[in-house]
Amino acid sequence: MLAKRLFDLVFVIPGLLVLSPVFLVVGFLIKSKDGGEIFFKQTRVGKGGKLFKVLKFRTMVVDAEKIGAKVTTGDDVRITPVGSFLRKYKLDELPQLLNVLIGNMSLVGPRPEVPEYVEFYPEETKKVIFSVHPGITDTASIEFVNENEMLSGSKNPVEDYKNKVLPIKLGYSMEYVKTRSLWVDFKLILKTVSAIVA
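The chain above was modelled as a monomer; its predicted structure follows.
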């Protein structure tokens, strides 16, 4: 939808210009405190079921996915000190503005999931959710803003995420796709900002 693409660009282009100093500072902190890559790239499933690389500031030790699960809890020992701060204020998500600029994500839409968990989506759910671009934020992002802390202490965070959290997220995603509009997007952006700064 052309209107949605223009809506995204109206926010993203000025946003990237304003936030460029933040990108520089965060990049410097990650490099100086932990070394390694500044950005974390992870394969996610996007519109039409196509795979793409989602961008985030790296908040965990190098090669974290090789030494642990893809579900992260608040007490995950792989999280670096700088990463803990970035996660608390959702600053690690900022590079996804580049995903929006590129065009494989939107500001608002169902959060993109890793292929391993997409396997658990019902077929009808896949058809609906993958009919639109995934987003940086949606209702699930707001409701589960403290998801990492919610899973802290879980004996099996992967199973708890798959059986308890994921079904609720999919419900929110289905509702968004069926009721989406630019006005809904605008309200969700405001709610996201409010949830982060609260």
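Residues 4 and 182 are 7 Å apart (CA to CA).
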